[in-house]
Amino acid sequence: MQTQEKAVDNKVDRNKVYFLIVVIVALLGINGYLYFRDQQQTSRFVTISTEKDRLKLEVEKIEVELDRVNLLNVTLNDRLIEEQKLAREKIAELKLALKKGELTQKELDEAHKQINSLRDFVKSYNNQIAILEQENSFLKTERDSLKTSINNYNEQTENLRRENKNLNRKVKVGSSLKSSDISIIAFRVKDNGKTSIVSKASTANKLTIDFAIVPNDLAEKTYHKIFLRVIDPAGNLIADENNMFEADGQQMQYSRAIEISYNNDETRYKIDWINPRAFIKGVYGIFLYADGFQMGKSEIELK
Length: 303
What we know:
Layout lengths: L1 H70 L6 H21 L6 H71 L3 E11 L5 E4 L7 E8 L9 E9 L5 E2 L5 E4 L2 E4 L2 E6 L6 E7 L7 E9 L2 E10 L1
Antiparallel strand pairs: 1-2, 1-3, 3-9, 4-5, 4-8, 4-10, 6-7, 10-11
Helix pairs in contact: 1-2, 1-3, 2-3
Protein name: Chromosome partitioning protein ParA
Keywords: Coiled coil, Membrane, Transmembrane, Transmembrane helix
Organism: Pedobacter chitinilyticus
């Protein structure tokens, strides 16, 4: 009887041991499964985070490539400007998507796809910019060459203009009248109209300038205007301020002007000039001009 009870007790103890072993094994299995699952989730999270960072970097690289274009001295056409605008809008959308706390694998795959598309676009875009740069460089070279040609042409034209101007001046100088054998006589004109030659300033009131013209085959045989300028002993021009003419490239005042008919012969000409002021002692300078140049000069001294 005791032996049977003892056998039953031993059997119960063994069952308890087996049960405990099963429980322990089950717990170990559960713990192992949970650990393995946690490891998978952690690995998946790390993988997704790493992929997000990589995609963000790719987006930033693409944006840098687009920014580089703006630093180039290239004028973009409307199509390239529109393409860049669309690319930047897509970049902004991707940046916003990648800022999300969590992304599904599908969202990551879509981002991957869009970034690859953008990368292809930037490659094509840069190729177009490179071609545009070459075209601009060629056009710049052509423009510079044309500008140089124009500058050379303008310089040659200016040189020709100066040469023509100098030549015209030489022709004008060569064809202008030149006086010779100038004589000046001081007269006293009385109230009754009679005149007498004088040498004193106190009695003189008129000067007569008599002159011939040097023969000149280049001078026009036509009417020429002769201008007289009288300078008193103090160096003052005696002239009406309204009497103006041009000579030697500038405006001048004259004391008197006459018109002569030139025939390239030995004709002598005469200018009578009445002093509107009283003569003073000293040397009076007489200057004659015609055709825009000085034709001669002389002087007379009044005592």
